[in-house]
Amino acid sequence: MNDKRNQPSPVPGTSAAGGSRFDVLRERVSNGLPMPLWLQGAFELLQAAFFSAFLVVIPVVAVWFAGGILERPIEDMFKLSGQIWLLIHGVPLTLHLNGAESDPEPLAGVLSLIPLGLTLVPFFLAWRAGRRIARASYTDQLWQGIVGALGVYVLFGLFTGFAVQTEEASVSLGAAATIPLIAAGTGVIVGCHREAGSWGRLIGFDTAAWIARASQHSRWAGSYVWAVVRSGTLAYVMAFGLAAAVLAVNLGVHWLDISNVYQQLRPGLVGSAVLTIGQLGMMPNLALWTLSWITGGGIVLGNGSTLSTLETTVGPLPAVPFLGALPTGELTYAWCFMLLPVLAGIMAGWFFLRVGENHFDDWLSLKVRYRWLSLGVSTLALGLIVGSIAAAISLVGSWLSAGSLGIGRFTEVGPELWLTAAFLGAEVAVGTAIGYLLGPLLEHDPVLDG
């Protein structure tokens, strides 16, 4: 790992390449200021925290100046910005609202629906900070910068949670201090890995040497497991990509309906910009919801509203523009979309064939006399394992994209967690078996000239 602080110093008045003092200063700033690693890590991630908070404050205060939020002091806008900053980091907010005139009982609920697109902002800022931390340290020193970075993020989240408490919304200080570490910590570690070039250099552990000491049978088993894990991941990623493509086409088809909702709301220039930013932040959620829809598992949009390729029941929905693109009406052939995860499984099975690590089939062919039986059993096992891996990843994605709006009918919003995983796992399993068996028909050996 590069340690810029321990490189030979340039001649006074020039840089290492013969430049001016300004070039030297610029190079030092770009490579990180000389300071203890824990302090540099804290400084880098503190910048990310402040910048992400600044990006939240700007649109909220702009809406206030435009008159979109009436009869509230500017201090409340900063508290609202802090609450939004915590929410995009995954921290749930407890809402306390007054009831209607007919029912004066106060309403309480938990707002936990995370706009994943906005969560990418602190993630990438932390990723950049992680790269800069790794650039300034050796492998065995890297933990110091990471500990300093995460420590200051804990303090920033704790202070934010303490400062944004209001009568309408409150937050657990423990959650405010720890949950933001998920997005920021993941970003820092991924950034450090990107700069280090390998996980071995990042953690100081030589994986290749450890594998070399293992027995041949262990290496074969490990190669098989790793190939299966990659195939399952590929199946899920491709299914997600196909779902995102379906979402994009559907938004284009229903663009007129979305525009009509905008016109009915009349949010103004600033309000339209903020509303659009919020909807863009929800795009990853919508893509994951679309994946649940095409699998047949379905999504829930509050009590009484369930949408899937097999059944659609839609109740009253809020006036949010992107909801104008919901598939409604007679959907006779909607079940055909369930073939898309099967296609993802076919590609996963073909990929596994090309990797050439089916050591379970090799072992089974030695134990079972009939080739048709050994091939059938190994292919069935491959499909089940790959489908299970895709289903497990689906559980994580569906859980992240789901949540609650806290009040009223919308206490449950998002994919049907277990149904989506079950349907996706079964569809990917079938596709993987088909792709592995048909893969040889798509492979051609090069013709060698005599």
UniProtKB/TrEMBL annotation:
<feature type="transmembrane region" description="Helical">
    <location>
        <begin position="373"/>
        <end position="397"/>
    </location>
</feature>
<feature type="transmembrane region" description="Helical">
    <location>
        <begin position="234"/>
        <end position="256"/>
    </location>
</feature>
<protein>
    <submittedName>
        <fullName>Uncharacterized protein</fullName>
    </submittedName>
</protein>
<feature type="transmembrane region" description="Helical">
    <location>
        <begin position="332"/>
        <end position="353"/>
    </location>
</feature>
<dbReference type="Pfam" id="PF19877">
    <property type="entry name" value="DUF6350"/>
</dbReference>
<feature type="transmembrane region" description="Helical">
    <location>
        <begin position="45"/>
        <end position="65"/>
    </location>
</feature>
<feature type="transmembrane region" description="Helical">
    <location>
        <begin position="268"/>
        <end position="291"/>
    </location>
</feature>
<keyword id="KW-1133">Transmembrane helix</keyword>
<keyword id="KW-0812">Transmembrane</keyword>
<feature type="transmembrane region" description="Helical">
    <location>
        <begin position="417"/>
        <end position="438"/>
    </location>
</feature>
<dbReference type="InterPro" id="IPR045931">
    <property type="entry name" value="DUF6350"/>
</dbReference>
<feature type="transmembrane region" description="Helical">
    <location>
        <begin position="142"/>
        <end position="164"/>
    </location>
</feature>
<keyword id="KW-0472">Membrane</keyword>
<feature type="transmembrane region" description="Helical">
    <location>
        <begin position="107"/>
        <end position="130"/>
    </location>
</feature>
